[in-house]
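Example (one chain per record):
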Amino acid sequence: MIIVVRGHASSSTGRSKIANHLSDYTKFPLFHHDHVAKALQPSFPSTSIQFQPLNDLSLLSFKILHQIASSQLSLNHGVIIDSALSDPTHLDQLNQLAKSQGVDLILIQCRPPDEIDDYDVGAGGRKLTVDTTEPFRVEEFVLQHLPGLAVASQPKAEKPHVPKGKPVKTLSIKPHKRVTESIHRHLHALVLSNKTKNEDRNCKRCRQSIPGLCYHCLDCDEYIFHKSCAEDPGNLELLPDYLKAKDPKGYGFPEKQRQKCSICEEESKGFSRDCHDCLFETNMKLKDGFLPIVINHESHAHPLNLIIMPISINYEYGCYGCGEFGKSISYRCYDCNINLHVGCVSLPRTASSEHDKHTLRLVYDAVDHNYLEKCYCQVCKKEVNPEQWFYSCSICDTVTHIVCASATATV
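Predicted structure:
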């Protein structure tokens, strides 16, 4: 999640004070635009100030701030940015960053009621307003507007101090329903290991105990899977079109198979198309035609995690395989910050084409296969980008675009 606090920096209810309160409460790291700019100030010689555009320092400091935020998000951490956003393009850049990382963008406007609201956060984000003429109560604000963060930020209860040698009568306390860290909404970066945060947890998919290797989320103790359950390939031929599309327009999950996540259950809600956990859990509960949770693809050294986002979030990315645009669903490597279409990770390793009598083989790395010079597709005659995947015939020494190979495939 990216939280941007914008407004006047001065006064007891200025944006910097509010940003500090939010950081203390949510435990998200906070980065001040003004502090970065101040640190860069010595790099701008005083003799050239009169010739230097006033916004150059702001642009450079924001660029650094953007890089820091990107690094935090790649580690699956939330971030709070304190900035006046003097340039409207800064918000656009943060919006694009949020989309590329598949996280929410929250813009908090700190202003008095009579001040003009002149920023549009776009379809992919949310805009909240804090009245700077009133005291800011962080807990009330988060509970009202960001309830997921409120539950995640509650401190653990401390054990009472018991003097040695003195028996203490304990009160009978009615047990409460256990609240896990998963209440804080986040994408679940699954890693393979022998250890989890909670050794007593069962597999999220099959509900059986996990004696050995498992995939588990780095940030919560709820999403944990047997290695076999996470890597279950299912039958990709049975996938519905909306799970294979590069730009799905909606999800047509059968009503009886829709699942609500624990967060929505805590909030007394049903299945929501606007909740990525509900979509994720519904997919993994499908008996046929589901997307694998994790794919170990021969093109990449690390596991690829399934991301299935609400259409309303407008999650966008460039596919590492074919180079084309993609939305809403991808397979992501959190280590390398790359995404792949569902269609690309499921491409056949070999193909047949009416333009070649030999078997074509899928090439992931042109350098490894000595395709260093310009190559042209034998079907469309256009240049093939060596940084993207393509099919090749080693006998004829020809290459073919993925799309062209698919269009001219023979049975």
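Caption: Residues 47-54, 150-184 have pLDDT under 50 and may be disordered.
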